[in-house]
Design brief:
Layout: E1 2-5, E2 21-25, E3 32-37, H1 44-53, E4 62-65, H2 72-80, E5 84-86
Parallel strand pairs: 1-4, 4-5
Antiparallel strand pairs: 1-2, 2-3
């Protein structure tokens, strides 16, 4: 299963706020197994565990996610539910241009 969030381009609530769901997708079929709206006063990190709680059984399942979800709490939650995980670990400052880091 893959956990990822996306902003829905061209879609907005009546208040004008863009819609940003976090979802669990099946790698093989591409089907969304569980969507969750990321609320206005929260972020994807705080929605990770509530999203996975909507799935009955994670035992033996491999869950992938992007670097944002490389959190100790997320790993502990997955292991506690019998799941395995693959996450991305990046060097601090990975998103800064090399010149700004003093490298050329």
């Amino acid at each position: 299963m893959a956990v990822d969030g996306k902003t829905l381009r061209g879609a907005a609530r009546a208040t004008g706020r863009t819609i940003h769901p976090l979802a669990v997708c099946d790698h093989l079929s591409g089907l969304v197994l569980a969507p969750l709206d990321v609320g206005e006063k929260t972020n994807k990190i705080t929605c990770f565990q509530p999203l996975l709680e909507t799935l009955a059984d994670l035992a033996g399942v491999v869950v992938t996610s992007d670097a944002m979800h490389t959190q100790r709490e997320h790993a502990g939650h997955l292991l506690g539910r019998g799941a395995q995980y693959i996450v991305i670990a990046k060097e601090p400052g990975w998103d800064e241009p090399a010149v700004e880091r003093g490298r050329s």
